[in-house]
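FW: tagging you since you asked about this chain on Friday. Here's the raw sequence from the shared folder, copied in full. Didn't touch anything.
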Amino acid sequence: MDDRGHLTTEQRNPRSTGLSRMSIGEAFDLINTEDRLVADAVRDARSEIVAAIEAVVSAFRSGGRLVYLGAGTSGRLGVLDAAECPPTFLSDPNMVVGMIAGGSDALTRSIEGAEDCPQDAGGEIDRLDVSQNDVVLGIATGGTTAYVHAGLRRAKERGATTVLFACVPKDEVQDDADISIRVITGPEVLTGSTRMKAGTATKMVLNMISTVAMVRIGKVHENLMVDVHTEGNRKLVDRGIRIISELTGSPREESRALLERAGGKVKTAIVMHKTGASCRRAEAMIADASGSVSSLIGEP
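HL: got it, structure written out here
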C-alpha cells in the first residue's frame, strides 16, 4: 500500500493542532478563517479553469457533453452539479453527466472501496459512448484516485478532452490530462478530511465551469436565467414570470399569461413580446439564433 502522507491534503494543519481542545466558538473562527483561503486558491488556478470552460463551451457547441467523474465527496459534487443544470438552464439531462464510483448507492452512503476499482470507470466511459466531442472532468482532490485516473485514460483513448481537478501540486501527483486544474487549498482543519476546504473548492470550480459555459451558449441573458425550467415548481414559475416582467416591462399578470402562451418557456415568451411573433415562430427564431435571445431582443 502506497504511503500518501506526503500529499498536501494529508498534511497536518499547524493552525488546527489544538482543534480537540477548542471551544465551539474557537473552532468556528478557525474553520471560517481557513475557508477564506479557498477563493484565493481558486483564483490562482484561473488560467486552467478558463481553459476548461473554453473546452466545455466547444464541446456543447459541437453537440458534446461535460462528464464529471469522481469518488466519495468528489463524485457527489459532480453528480450534484450535473443534476442542477436541467432546472437552471433547461439543458438536456444528458448534456452534463455525473459519474460516481460505486454508482447511485454511493450518493447516500459511503462505498469507500469503489474508488480503488479502476476497471469500473473505464466500463462506464464505454457505456456512455464518450467521444471526441466530449469533455471528461475527473475530480480527485487528493490526486491519486484510481477510479478517476482510469476513467480519464479511457476517455482520452476514445478521443475526449480530459481535465483533472485536484488540490495537490503536480509535483506531488502527476497526470496526463489535457488540462490539469490544481487548486491548492492546503492542509485541512481536520487532517485529511477533503470534504472541507477541498470540497468547497470543488463546488466553487464546478459551479463556475458549468455556469459560464451555459452563459456562453446562450442559456443566460444579462444575468437572468432565461432558460429556467418552469414546469411543476412554483418557485421557478415565479422566477420565470419575474424575468419576463424585468425584460419586457409587462405587469406580473400579463407576464404570467405570456408565459402560459409560450408553453412555460421564458425565452419564447420574451421573444414573442419583443417581436410580436407567434409561439411557434418565436421558437424557430431562437433556434436559428443558436439558442441566444440577445440578438433578437437587443442588448442593454
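FW: Residues 234-297 form a domain with the Helicase, Ruva Protein; domain 3 fold (CATH 1.10.8.1080).
HL: agreed, and The chain has two domains: 8-216, 234-297.
FW: great, closing this out.
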